[in-house]
Amino acid sequence: MSDLNRGIMKFEGADSPTLVTISTVLLLGSIAVLIIWALQSAYAVN
After folding, report:
1. Does pTM surpass 0.85?
2. Could you give the CA distance from residue 27 to residue 15 in angstroms, rounded to a whole number?
3. Between the CA of residue 46 and those of 26, 28, 33, 34, 39, what are the distances in Å?
4. Contact in structure between 28 and 22 (CB atoms under 8 Å)
5. What average pLDDT does range 24-44 have in this prediction?
6. Which of 2, 8, 12, 20 is most deeply packed, by most CB within 10 A?
7. Which residues, in sequence order, are CB contacts of 14 under 8 Å at separation 6+?
8. What 3-state DSSP class applies to 24?
9. CA–CA dist 39, 1 (Å, integer)
10. Are 23 and 10 in contact (CB under 8 A)?
């Protein structure tokens, strides 16, 4: 069992490249949305 199959993601294939890529895109996308929202709220850039 690899280390990526432990913790929250306790299922087979948790360390597959496809799932890791999807998770990375979702995480970075949500961070980007939060940064854009924060900049628009703070500086009223429109």
Report:
1. no
2. 16
3. 25, 23, 15, 16, 10
4. no
5. 92
6. 20
7. 4, 5
8. helix
9. 43
10. no
14 Cα distance to chain centroid: 14
Chain segment 1-15, per-residue pLDDT in tens: 556 555 666 677 777
Q: Tell me, what's the pLDDT at 24? A: 92
The token pair at 41 is: 């709220």
Q: Is the pLDDT of residue 31 over 70?
A: yes
Nearest Cα neighbor of 36 from 45, 27, 25 is 45
* Token pair belonging to 42: 């703070």
DSSP 8-21: T--STTTT-HHHHH
